Every structure is written in C-alpha cells, then in structure tokens.
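DM from R.C. (forwarded with permission)

"hey, sorry to bug you on a friday — could you get me a structure for this? deadline for the figure draft is monday and I only need the backbone to look sensible"
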Amino acid sequence: MQDFILYNAPQSTCSQRVRYVLHAKGLAFEEHKLDLFTGDQLKPEYLAINPNGVVPSLVHQGRAVTDSAVIMEYLEDILPGAFRPRDAFGAAKMRAMMRFIDEVPTPAIRVPSYNLAFLPHYQAMTAEEFQAVCDAKPLRREFLMKMGRTGFPEQEMNEALGRLQRGVQRMASWLSDNGGPWIMGDEMTSPRPTTTGRC
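My reply, with the result:
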C-alpha cells in the first residue's frame, strides 16, 4: 500500500495541479479516479474522506488532506523542495499570488466549464432529479441552482471570461516583473536565499 493515495478526476484543474506537484517531487502514489458525472464524489465512502464532496483529496498514512491549495502546501511542508521560497517574504509573496489565483480565475473557470461539460447531463434530468443533485453538493449547491438546467446566461459567461482575462494579465505581469521563466523568477517559486540564517 502506498503512503499517498490521491482521489481525483482527470478533467479537474484542481486535481491536475496536485498531480503535477506529486510527479514533480517524484512521489509514488495510488490513484483513485472519480467519475464526477456519475457522482462518485458524493458517495458515502468518499464523503467520509472529504465531506465537501469535491476533488482532489490526498490520503497520507491514513489521514485525509483536502483542498488542492492545502494539499500542495502540505506536500511542501513534509517534503520541502522548490515549490515554496524559504524566506518569509518570498513565501508571503507566493501565498498572495495563490490567493489571487484562487479568488479570481479559479472560480471564474467554473462558469464556462460547467456550461460546457456538465450542462448536457443536467438538461437530460427532470427538475426533481436536478434538485436532488444540487442538494447533494455541499459546496456547489447554490452555484448549480443559479446555473439551472438552462446554463449560465451570456452576461455571466462574459463576466467569467473577463475575470479569466484579468487572471492571465496578472500572471503575465508577474512573469515580466520577475524575469521568468516561472512566475516568481528563474526557479519554480524564487531563488533560494544565500544567507544561512533561519526565518
């Protein structure tokens, strides 16, 4: 049995970034792919791992860590590497960038993604079946209710695309300001401090 068990979905962008970190750190892991369209994430056995009913979740030595940003920080905590600056200011700068990404482009991508990927499944349901799906989603109930079985209207699609554009522009400015090729400079986060002092 692997020390790391990842519950995820291939099309989930949150799952993708956790898989990236696991592979970049060279960590072997057992993978459980959940079918989001059939509701694997809402089955009792998965809700016992992640009561929010979303992916990904990482089980490490029998203990569950949920939320992709938290999982990435956890992996860096237990196996420090190139993903977080060692100096306090650099780490704070990285976390501020992550907060922006999680606040602006991440929720924005859900609108076109759900319209394109999930809406056909919901349109094939009765009103009662769709309501049951909404009620079963701990984190996404109101979001799904707002989308309904007709999808998000053009105005909301345009607002989401605008937020995505702002996200891309902000990340482009980070690349330019820090000289690339990574957002924080010439390493995945930032150059390591040359001093031996601890933060």
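R.C.: lifesaver. The radius of gyration is 19 Å.
me: no worries. The longest strand covers residues 4-8.
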